[in-house]
């Protein structure tokens, strides 16, 4: 495992990238409503990222025969992550809609995700969104230089399971910096075989609880990208890029 500890100059670029991405997400949120297609949101996201002096981190990701074709991952209801935006996917009242988005600025990446309620949603869906976000914030509460990475995973899992939901296990958070995905992998759960490590100041991580109403199991869709819940029940996602400091955590995409 090779973890790149960022220096002050690199951290400053990542702060800029994080701030720009948070601003883009704020603007996208204003356009998320019933009657809008996920492709409309995607096109706006690309315009905003380019206007901020960045590049979309996801577009073309994976290369090869099936690169990711869009700026955002647009996942609705039982789609966990990596949904491909489409002009035929129109948001409807009662949906929950996940936007996962990344930016690259001056050679460094930032990554974040939010789940939005479309109009009136069920009590269960509302609770799912709240618990997913809460598991992130509770998970980072005790992180700082010298703490164990598993502190996040254990706390996030407990928060989710105490609320009666399940944590997705085959998709995890990650280190981030010069690459969109770097070491270490950061599961949102803890079990035998967990690769723990002591956190150091200057580590940057993209932590992202993915939480399901029913089973933790997922299935890969026919497009080779989207993951769906195996039981087709709802899933929520919440992600921020963070910096580990001597005293705690700085959320770069707040």
What keywords describe this structure?
single chain; 254 residues; alpha+beta; Creatine Amidinohydrolase; 4-stranded antiparallel β-sheet; 15 strands
Structure description:
With 254 residues, the chain is of the alpha+beta class. The protein has a single domain, classed as Creatine Amidinohydrolase. It contains four helices and 15 strands. The model has no long low-confidence stretch (mean pLDDT 98). Strands 8-7-9-14-15 form a five-stranded antiparallel beta sheet. Strands 1, 2, 4 and 5 form a four-stranded antiparallel beta sheet that branches. Strands 3-12-11 form a three-stranded antiparallel beta sheet, with no helix packed on it. Helix content is 27%, strand content 25%.
* Number of contiguous helices: 4
Oligomer class: single chain
Shape: globular
Q: Any guess at the CATH architecture?
A: Alpha-Beta Complex
The CATH superfamily is Creatinase/methionine aminopeptidase superfamily
Overall residue-averaged pLDDT value: 98
Number of domains: 1
| Helix-strand category | alpha+beta
CA-to-CA gap between the ends? 28 Å
Into which percent range does the helicity of residues fall?
25-40%
**Rg, Å, rounded:** 17 Å
Which range does the strand content fall in? 25-35%
The name CATH uses for the topology is Creatine Amidinohydrolase
Strand adjacency order, main sheet = 8-7-9-14-15
Query: How are helices and strands ordered from N to C?
Result: HHEEEEEHHEEEEEEEEEE
How many strands, what sense, and barrel or not for the largest sheet?
5 strands, antiparallel
The first-level CATH class name: Alpha Beta
Number of DSSP strand runs: 15
Q: Which regions are unreliable across 5 or more consecutive residues at pLDDT < 50? A: none
